[in-house]
Automatic annotation (TrEMBL):
Localization, UniProt: Nucleus
SUPFAM superfamilies: Homeodomain-like
Residue stretches making up the HTH myb-type domain: 32-88, 89-139
Entry keyword set: DNA-binding, Nucleus, Repeat, Transcription, Transcription regulation
Pfam family, one: Myb_DNA-binding
Protein name listed in UniProt: Myb-related protein Myb4-like
One Gene Ontology cellular component annotation held by this UniProt entry: nucleus
Domain Myb-like per the UniProt entry, residue ranges: 32-84, 85-135
Gene3D superfamilies per UniProt: Homeodomain-like
InterPro entries with a match to the protein in the record: EOBI/EOBII-like_plant (IPR044676), Homeodomain-like_sf (IPR009057), Myb_dom (IPR017930), SANT/Myb (IPR001005)
One GO MF term: sequence-specific DNA binding
Species, as recorded: Panicum miliaceum (Proso millet)
Tagged with keyword Cell inner membrane: no
Amino acid sequence: MEMMDALWMSPCGGISLPSSAAGVGEDEAAAAAELRRGPWTAEEDALLAGYVAAHGEGRWNELALAAGLRRTGKSCRLRWLNYLRPGVRRGGFTPREQLLILDLHSRWGNRWSKIAAQLPGRTDNEVKNYWRTRVQKHAKQLGCDVGSGRFHDAMRNLWMPRLLERIHADESAAAASPAHAPSSQPAYQNAAAPIISNCARATSPEAASCVTGSPSSWEASPAAQFQTSSPTMAACWSTGQCQNGYSSASSGDMFEESWSELLARANHDDADSAGLPDFGLGETGNNWWSLDDILQQPLY
DNA sequence: AAGGAATACAACCGCCGCGCC
DNA sequence: GGGCGCGGCGGTTGTATTCCT
């Protein structure tokens, strides 16, 4: 097995590819010995994309050699899947995508590829990076671990409800503005519907349970999506109650203010019996911050 | 303006599982 | 049944960019 890994991606100067592979000659093997590493150049991208377009995916080691790429097959595969593959979406995650990531992570843990499969155009690497940068950053701000009850409560009671507010606010704004008619919506908004609908259509029961309703009904009425699981949240969608105290920033991150500030404010509100759930340590079961769970929480 | 720190993203690494021979 | 070739996954590292002092 380790030998296989050496073939897949041994560092510069150490590779010894089997000469039988795709008729690899000694010259080619020697060339392969000087494998490139680091960022891909535009020329390499063009080579890889062109070769895959002509011959299809798979057999990455042979592909790398045949295309004249001084890269490991594994590197070629990764570059193709994460960057060059048609349909790969780049840029910040939409609130819906963020919400879905949080929800699915609560169900599946660090199953990045499984989570990414529910986000059309997104890669496991992107989802993983999002988690490690944004989510873990917030945990750090709170001075706790992402696996702690304190952080899970913050996610469930602060982040996810606010993502729902954000989604609602965005859609309200889009509906109110002729410039945001469906045909002229930004790409990220058009992409949001498949994210939810894909989740709803997912073959696995776990994925299918994350959001109820059809894709079309989601687009037509977000409130309807929560009707069956939470009258409270449905009412929120309908009345705009969720927007209380929320500023619809365009940042990719929901929180312009720090988590510590949010938490302090939230706890203060709670002390005033404003309805914010207790932010002390506590559990909500295995499904820490799932939509199913937060939809049962009172809004604040 | 410059340098260091923090952040975000791309790429690499090691391991595992599956199918084929 | 065991080895091989390959694809996939999750964790980690490297680096470019942005932010802050």
